[in-house]
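Comment thread on ticket #2218

A.B. wrote:
> Attaching the input chain for the structure job we discussed in standup.
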Amino acid sequence: MLRILILGLAILAAPLEVLAHAAVEPVPVDNQGWADRQAGLNRRVAEAGKTAQVIFVGDSITAGWEGAGKDVWSQYYAKRNAINLGIGGDQTQNVLWRLEHGNLDGLQPKVAVVMIGTNNVGRGATDPQVAEGVAAVVNLLRAKMPTIRVLLLAILPRGENPNLMRGDVLQVNQIIQKLADDRSVFWLDFGAQFVNADGTIPQSLMPDFLHPDAKGYQIWAEAMEDKLAMLLGERRNPAAH
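C.D. wrote:
> Ran it. Output below, let me know if you need it in another format.
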């Protein structure tokens, strides 16, 4: 009976063992909407080619530059021929697959802005696994584009009130911050600007306590402008406050 119990536990544990490294194993999302968005991004990339100076890599928070953040985007990034490579729901493993399947083809951007990992956290990956997935994205970008500078952004806080998931986000950020060498990879954390003094996230900046609204994207753009302009060899955007 003991032997049968041990065998049963081993079988139950097997899928978890496979998932343990899921964050670094490139995989597409089995969803037609996702596939359509991926195909659309590849067309966008092909049209932009070498004119794109900046690429934004991420999930729905990045994709939101085309929604709530569209006016801020036009102020800050349109003239830089920036490309939004965000897809809602993406985890690090999905981004890895996209970068290997067309999202970088023909591009020679100076800077890649990367924010990814919140969906890995939300779906139960451990903090080290999420950090490893983020590192894999950064390393793949550098391998495919040796001259690129990666502006790695801290994962934003989430949830109206302090919670365990926010703790995970903070711990992941502590790990991935170490990826920055201030030569090829640069770090920026502006998450505290989305949190009130009492620890709550204001609905005026994140209506669902996860995705920024227009004010939230303005905060993002202003917080990033000095460093992005420096990496691009430009002056600060005069639209920035």
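A.B. wrote:
> Thanks. Noting for the ticket: Strands lie at 54-58, 83-86, 111-115, 149-153, 185-188.
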